[in-house]
Amino acid sequence: MSWEALFPFTARINAAQHLEIGGCDASDIAEQFGTPLYIYDETTLREQAGRAINAFRSRWENVTVLYATKAYFAPFIARLDRELGLGLDVTSEAEMVIAQRAGFDSNTIYVHGNNKTPAEVCAALNNRITHFVIDNLDEISNLQLLTSNFQPPTPKLQLLLRLSPNIDAHTHRYMTTGVADSKFGLGIQNGMAEEAAREILARAQAGANFELVGLHFHIGSQVFDTDALRDALYAVLDVAAEWQHRFGFQLRELNIGGGWGVAYNEAQTALDIETFAENTVRALREGLRARGLNESLRLVVEPGRGLVARAGVALYRVGAVKNIPGVRNYIAVDGGMGDNIRPALYGARYQAFLSNRMNDAASQEYAIVGRYCEQGDILIERAQLPEARVGDLLAIPIAGAYQLPMASNYNLIPRPAVVLVQEGRARLVRRRETVQDMLACDLDD
Question: pTM of the prediction?
Fold first, then answer.
């Protein structure tokens, strides 16, 4: 894999040997907006979304592609997603507010979460959102209680059960969500899923303002094991067939989740969306037919990382270079675990480039470290780079997902600014935090 495959589609090296994204020189962007900085490429966002939509809609008539907002969500992302025809997978009230302000049709929003608070449920009902993914037994009675006297009366809610098929996605244990010992979902083998289905059906028959329309599964994030995904699909279809026979359940929606893997460095290979869609739809069609299930159901997919990761580049300024004889060399940058916790949390492995000297040959190995007061604040353990100097700009690609959403103010350091680039224009879409922003919620005694 070449370096270009890690960067946004518009990335190139210009005449000054600088990294250029969306027609904008990264050095000029850093000069204008400061660092650390996250650059998002609008062309890549549009193209990745279009590829996912076309890959599935060309193969299955009734498809809804949801953007998984947990990957990264902001007003500019919301507006693009709505324009491109995506729906949303949301978890919090703030995500619903952004969706509502961007003009999303409430029927294209699905509410997730393993512990939906009453305030979040009421926010969804106020926004006339009808799709809820049920994650535990307590949620069913809570939902009926909150909807029973809600004013104005809500439309009938469309419920999906999140099943845990007990299949290992073979990813990091913190990103494996479909095994028996998981905080997410209702187990198939232990009977929890069937108990939930029977309770929803019984409450609906007794007058509750909801109905069970579908099933959902999600076995993990950063998943490359397509065999595990297929096995999970068949396990869930087995459940649907059994419930159809035993108590008349009709599968009208099937949500196969997301979490499909992307390449973070040149040694990895991204999951190809066309191949994955082809294999998934073929397996789905064969599985439905073999079990006598509804072949006109709505297929729902939830890519997040796969749509946004490649569109983002993290840009840092080198503040110090420390050479420890006989040990190793360090490059300290002005960001770190405060804006990218993934290396410390998941052992994520990135690749770095000096964006102001893209054509210089790599000559040394460095550990890329952040400015935070933790020994574990290491972005990259072993980075092959040209000889680094104070003031260099360091770019880390595949930075669009699960970095800013998990950013913190550790050491009371402001979170980065975000810039959107397109056709030679760099537009600030999130200003850099200030000290006043960070202290706004504190009450002075």
Answer: 0.93
